[in-house]
Amino acid sequence: MSPRSSDTSPPADIYVGLLFVSVGALTTALVFLLIELNSYGFQLQ
After folding, report:
1. How many domains would you assign to the chain?
2. DSSP string, the chain
3. What is the pTM for the complete model shown?
């Protein structure tokens, strides 16, 4: 019998990769939004 490892987490699949892609897209969109708002003189208070 082969010994079991203590790591019981499932391997990452395509959905985990898509999660990282979507977080990157949201971050990029927020940066572009801030750049656009800055051109109109918007400032956080």
Report:
1. 1
2. -PPPPS--PPPP-HHHHHHHHHHHHHHHHHHHHHHHHHHTT----
3. 0.67
